[in-house]
Amino acid sequence: MLPPGLDPRTPVLVGVGQIVHRAGEPGLPGPVELATESLRRAGTDSGTGERLLRSADLIVAAAPVSRPYPDLGALVAAELGVAPKRTLQSARFGGDAPQRLVNTVAQAIADGRCEIALITGAESVASWNAAPRTGVALDWPEQSEDVRPTELIGTERGPNNEMETAVGLWGPIYFYALMETALRGRLGLSEAAHRDRIGGLWSRLSTVAARNPYAWQPAEQSIDDLVTPTRANRMVSSPYPKLLVANLSVDQGAGLILCSAAAADAAGVPRDRWVFPHGGASATDEWFVSERADMSSSPAIAAAGRAALSGAGIGIDDLAHIDLYSCFPVAVQVAAEALGLPIDDPARPLSVTGGLTFAGGPGNNYAAHSIATLTGRLRDDPSAYGLASALGWYITKHAVGVYSARPPARLFRAVEPEVPVARRDTAPGYTGPATVEAYTVAYRKGPAPEHADEPEAVVISALTPAGARILVRASDSETVAAFTDGDPIGAEADVTAADRLTLRTERTVK
Fold it and tell me: Is residue 480 within 8 Å of residue 455, measured between CB atoms?
């Protein structure tokens, strides 16, 4: 019998499974194998074995990037011997996918359009990279590019505008590094204070990962270990050495079983397995980073967080367990600020897994691991509430979920709150006076003569007297030196070309 007053359509997480295949272990498993095994483990975790798996009417997958299957769920269904009515898959890129998919599926269950859903995802970048080194052929399933899931969730919109692409901001490493220095400038921190801040944040995440049996790199790291450039911790793009960025070269999978309370009861899932989604929301910031009024804040995370907490009927102080998407330090700091959380509360760490550097960054699917881990925490602490956040591209698209083993007071409702528009004009091709807002020095990858690799170029964000943003990529030695030897945030400068910026005021020595 269901608890009194609980709507039979109430969505509930009843099974979670995770798998990590570390370097040196036998085999080179692909995404299908890892995703399938994670769901088998979720079935075991639910206490029903494969009974719920075989009864699923929906299979949902975060799109894999190591082998871009157009419908991963269909391949997993075949491996499990399941015949779902529908398959859903996320857009090709976006770490917001797992939480967004949970919100979507939970809403479908609450609406009576689904009874039992399997949510999964996996990445095998480590095996993909190891195959040519070892000479072992990858025996992974094939799937025609013409195959399509029943529904695609999310957007395939590209992440860059022309000005960003022109200066080489083509990937997360560079964008997040630029946003990190924008945040430092807004907070008024020296480079030394900022290094301690982000090194301390990441060190605390490593401590969490050291206790996570599914972490890719379960070892504690000191602040000095993390912020000091060495051969093993090369500079990538300032202020980030390798140990402050997400580690995508992993083999990991995670699976979730989400069903209606009626289906969970009928299947005989023990009540101590039940964890309920209480609130879910998704929102999007101004799409292009260079067009945001402030590169170092997120109105969308704030809006989604408020909406998810409101759906749960609680406030931020009621949360006991938290996992903020942690690809780069700036992402955690921005999310914490948006939600009103301190970054250094020892009683309430900002990750339950250890984050994408230490727990592992399996492409689009990290948040499935955070939700699975959070589920375990809430089973052990059944009166508590937990929150998971997920984001895609460059702090661009967001999904937030609030969970508890407590039955919810109202039927789940996924929402998309309105986000206040805060846009800044851009000035591609501008020349003239400007103020340095942020910068990042990109480093070449390769053997270093001493500690760090050679600087390749500096990407600078500057504001014109009218407040428009201009991006400059300079590779001449004088300009690069000005941004490696000094700290010109806030300095007055002259933009003389797309690849030239001259400081007017003397740079502050680091």
Answer: yes
Closest to 178 measured CA to CA, from 357, 331, 351, 324: 331
For the stretch 315-369, pLDDT in tens is: 999 999 999 999 999 999 999 999 999 999 999 999 999 999 999 999 999 999 9
Please tell me the distance from the alpha carbon of residue 132 to that of residue 138, in angstroms, as a whole number.
9
The tokens for 240 are 């980030």
d(CA 156, CA 150): 16
Judge whether 382 and 388 are in contact, CB under 8 Å: no
Give the residue among 239, 227, 218, 110 at the shortest CA–CA distance from 173: 239
Q: Give me the phi and psi of 102, to 5 degrees please.
A: -60, -45
* Predicted structure pTM score: 0.96
DSSP-assigned letter for residue 273: G
What are the backbone dihedrals phi and psi of residue 15, each rounded to the nearest 5 degrees, phi first?
-150, 135
Q: Show contacts of 77-83: CB within 8 Å, 24+ apart.
A: 79/32, 79/33, 79/36, 80/36, 80/39, 80/40, 80/50, 80/53, 80/54, 81/54, 82/53, 82/54, 82/56, 82/118
CB 388 within 8 A of CB 367: yes
